């Protein structure tokens, strides 16, 4: 069931950054949806009919290789949107967008997005600015997957989930993480055991606790810092007042 209050959409950081007048203009076009784990929001072969603004759902952008292995090339939660090719022709950066964590999102039809772009300057600017940060994230992820250890990639991934959940307890299984990182479950188990031994995380079945975020950041590679700094730089004039 949809939330009783459409202002729940303001849990998404991009929507919250809009001037009140522009948010009120687009709000009739926003439709609340509940996403379940594994729901496919779009695939490369299909036409994208919506953009999605997650609030509590977490979305993975996946690249499917010819060998059948899927690797996460981007992750989007309440800080962003999914479906940039609805307003940027040819801007396909992944094979699929899949709900990684169940939760809510608000979606807008592609034709409504284009209509609002012509009338809402900040809405267009925010969407285009986020697209810049997403391109940066996809590029940085490719570097990370090539150069950094699984332990470092795991820390980077956990930092993103921690940002989204805003909780020190992350409900994740090793199988879910393995799918996102494109490695075997056993590889994730070894990496998680190493991080636990170094007191970076504590984990039990289906749950990972982050006792000290600073320590998690120290064990991560530089990729997380590069990506978050770029996000803040590009969107700072919009999101600063909504921290």
Number of helices: 9
- The largest beta-sheet arranges its strands as 2-6-4-5
What is the mean predicted local confidence, pLDDT? Answer: 87
Biggest sheet layout: 4 strands, antiparallel
* Model regions low in confidence, pLDDT < 50 over at least 5 residues: none
> How many beta-strand runs?
10
The CA-CA distance between the termini, in Å, is 28 Å
Spell out the helices and strands N to C: HHEEEEEEEHHHEHHEEHH
How large, in whole angstroms, is the Cα Rg? 18 Å
- What level of helicity do the residues show? 40-55%
Estimate what percentage of residues fall within beta strands. Answer: 15-25%
Shape: globular
Instruction: Determine the structural class based on helices, strands and strand pairing.
Output: alpha+beta
Topology of this structure?
Blueprint: H1 13-16, H2 20-26, E1 31-35, E2 40-43, E3 50-54, E4 58-64, E5 70-76, E6 96-101, E7 103-109, H3 110-117, H4 121-147, H5 150-165, E8 169-170, H6 174-181, H7 185-197, E9 202-204, E10 207-209, H8 213-219, H9 223-239
Antiparallel strand pairs: 1-7, 2-6, 3-7, 4-5, 4-6, 8-10, 9-10
Helix pairs in contact: 4-9, 5-8, 6-7
Give structural notes.
This protein is an alpha+beta fold and 243 residues long. Helices cover 44% and strands 20% of the residues. A hairpin with a 2-residue loop joins β9 (202-204) and β10. The radius of gyration is 18 Å and the shape is globular. The model has no long low-confidence stretch (mean pLDDT 87).
Keyword list:
243 residues, globular, 3-stranded antiparallel sheet, 4-stranded antiparallel sheet, 10 strands, alpha+beta
């Amino acid at each position: 069931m949809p939330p009783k209050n459409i202002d729940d959409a303001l849990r998404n950081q991009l929507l919250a950054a809009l001037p009140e007048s522009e948010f009120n203009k687009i709000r009739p076009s926003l439709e609340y949806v509940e996403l379940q784990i594994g729901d496919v929001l779009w695939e490369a072969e299909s036409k994208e009919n919506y953009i999605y603004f997650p609030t509590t759902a977490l979305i993975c952008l996946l690249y499917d290789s010819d060998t059948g292995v899927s690797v996460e090339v981007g992750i989007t939660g309440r800080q962003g949107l999914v479906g940039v090719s609805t307003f940027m022709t040819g801007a396909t950066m992944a094979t699929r967008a899949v709900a990684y964590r169940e939760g809510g999102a608000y979606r807008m039809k592609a034709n409504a997005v284009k209509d609002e772009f012509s009338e809402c300057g900040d809405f267009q600017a925010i969407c285009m600015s986020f697209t810049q940060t997403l391109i940066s994230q996809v590029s940085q992820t490719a570097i990370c997957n090539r150069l950094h250890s699984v332990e470092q990639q795991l820390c980077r991934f956990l930092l993103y989930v921690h940002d989204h959940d805003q909780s020190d307890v992350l409900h994740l299984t090793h199988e879910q993480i393995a799918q996102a990182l494109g490695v075997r479950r056993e590889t994730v188990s070894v990496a998680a055991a190493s991080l636990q031994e170094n007191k970076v995380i504590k984990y039990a079945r289906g749950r990972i606790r982050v006792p000290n975020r600073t320590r998690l950041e120290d064990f991560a590679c530089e990729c997380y810092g590069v990506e978050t700094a770029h996000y803040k730089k590009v969107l700072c004039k919009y999101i600063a007042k909504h921290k």
